Amino acid sequence: MPNETNFQALVDHNYILDVTETGSLKLFFQPVDHFYHRNFEVLAQVADFLSQNTNLPFYRMIQTKTGQYTLEVNGIPSILMAFPEERNAPAVPIGTMLAGFHRRSQGADIRYFPESPFYSRANVLSGRIDALEAKYKELQNKKERTAFEKGFISNFLYFSGCAENAIQYLVDVSIDYPNPEPIVLNHYRFSGADSLIPENPALWVADDRSRDLSEWLRLLAWNGEAHGIDAAADAFLDDYENQFPLSSQAAANLFGKLLFPLSYVECCERYFFSTGREDRHLLNELMRLNEERAANHEHILYYLSRRFQEIKVPEWIVSPQA
């Protein structure tokens, strides 16, 4: 990114800003490759609309003098962003805030967001687990294995079984509900208030709303104790559904996404396929934690089967007391 002098020169030369804003406007360049979707004009329009129709603060995307959103900055295609005006964060629960954001963004036209995983999810997930299965078979013939590889060999069948169940489950949901609900804007990886305040269009993902819900419940299961998960999940979903109730279709998609062992798969992909230098000790610990948290993962699935009794669930999802 440019230094302060060059930054101001770039802005002055390429943008026309409201003179009433320049005194307090805080700006920064965000590289284009930070954006999940690349239809910048639509993202900017949606951000402006939502900023006027919700209580959440939003980053604004600013056009150049020529009406474009991208500008080469030190050879990096970037977009000038404006920090939101100072405002107090809404004093409402996370579930309430998220429901309001989803409800306001419902009906986003998926034709504007070709990167959306909405129609390709099952195929993509299947490809990811197939790649790990090939690695599993390869390691069967390896005489000396690392600590991570030994853990992978011992637990892959369990986690791959969960993944295959999830993929088939999501396929079945698409058959059972041939008319999908309108998509909403989600977040690449929803992590609570930090994802909502402020809202960043770069991290939006056009998808069904169970994406964000599953991410938050996955975090609850990962970080919580088994005896407290139900109460935390109830509070979050109650707050959400008071604003935007879940249909049986949305509940089924939520269950299917949570059934897929995303953290485990990502951990293994980082170890086996990452082109960067990964911390092997950190990945060994993450593998151990995935095994340790498996019981919590099953617990949250059982919780959902009880909360949404109208959805189908695999037979092995049983009460933790059973």
From TrEMBL:
Entry keyword set: Capsid protein, Coiled coil, Virion
One Gene Ontology term, aspect cellular component: endospore-forming forespore
Lineage: Bacteria, Bacillati, Bacillota, Bacilli, Bacillales
Source superkingdom: Bacteria
The keyword Kinase belongs to this UniProt entry's keyword annotation: no
Keyword Coiled coil included in the entry's annotation: yes
InterPro entries associated with the record: CotS-like, Kinase-like_dom_sf
Name of the protein this chain belongs to: Spore coat protein YutH
Record's signal peptide: none
Gene3D superfamilies per UniProt: 3.90.1200.10
Any coiled-coil regions, as ranges: 122-149
